[in-house]
Amino acid sequence: MPTQIATTNLQGGKPPRPDASLIESLLAEEVFLPPEPASIEETGISPVLIESLTLKYLLQVGSGSGREIAQTLCLPLRILEDLLQNLRRRQLLVHQGQTQFSDYRYALTEAGVERARVAMASSAYVGAAPVLLEDYVLSVEAQTIRAEAIRRHHLQSAFGDIRVEASMVAQLGPAINSGAGLFLYGSAGNGKTTLAKRITKCFGQPIWIPRTLCEDGQFVKLFDPAFHEPVGAGQSNVLRDETYDHRWVKIRRPTVVVGGELVLDSLEIRHDASTNVSEAPLQLKSNCGCLLIDDFGRQRVEPQQLLNRWIVPLESRVDYLALSTGKKIQVPFDQLIIFSTNLEPTDLADEAFLRRIPYKIELPDPSFDEYSRLFEMYCREVGCRFDARAVDYLMEKHYRPANRPLRRCQPRDLLYQAKNYCAFHDLPVELRPEVLDHVAKSYFTAVSGQ
Which of 65, 87, 114, 374 has the lowest CB atom count within 10 Å? Predict the structure, then answer.
């Protein structure tokens, strides 16, 4: 029997009490909660599979207590006790002694070692018991990124450490709320990547994801520390006395960032034939979060190939993947997908695809006033006194004569070069003309193509 999915309805018709916002924030974390299974049947996983995970774990470590086995499999010890005793009766396990709290230490018999080696040859996966694919699909539906309504103050808070013009916030807000997709385009150095990486921060609600999925007897690893940040160690809600299924991890909504290294294989389930264990593709790891395709158009595959791969999922919100067995599975495609590029969207995609990416937002070059404010902000960051005359000097000496465009990255880059120059010469960080001339010559020579 598959795992029961616990959801909480947060709709209410009564006027909020003075402390309603606090209660709402506490309850919000349990829109979806994977409850702790009360039996092997409630995991949805075959007892034979759990037995093989137990035997393979003991083959690796030599011996282990019941609690150590339960912790590795991320299952409650009380539902494993009968299974462990059954393995002992079949002479696959043996007691090595009693431990604390009426627990025992287990080791493999010769027959158990042989059975474990057979299981290891079939699949080298050892770890948390997997979660059924159908349970994962239900969890994505319950935790969809479209369920969170983003307001202006959420976005402003997410951009708190960078400067974003109010007009840009007004454009980004509806695009993010759509949960569909958007193109961020504009000249290099204007902050597209910086902006995109902070967008997921405006979604405050954490989500639950399985460590590993199971379908058609195949193990597919989903949890990835490179993209998934655990939060709260999975504590129960303070208003309830509920435990949770440790096969799941509570994480911040993920932001998966890929750039020029993206290839079509990254969008398919990657199978390791030597271990018979698979890895989830990038779009699956980004579900209920954000997928940023940085420097779109500069990948090692043609943009049209990538767009063709996603044209159906973007409209239907589902994707189709192939397991190593050849079986096709349907999985959710539920994330805010952002294409960041310094190329024109119309040069990268045809009308059919652009229709499926409803928002196209340009990040133009900053005005002189914005450039000056950025310069002042980074002066505080590098510990230098801001002097408006320094900005005027840069304009007159290094920008206007060369008809050089302004970019948002330039104040930061120039000031950090000035800081390094002054540190090398054992000077206080000051925006003297000779310092600005030195760093401008070094910096703009490298980007003279502008």
Answer: 114
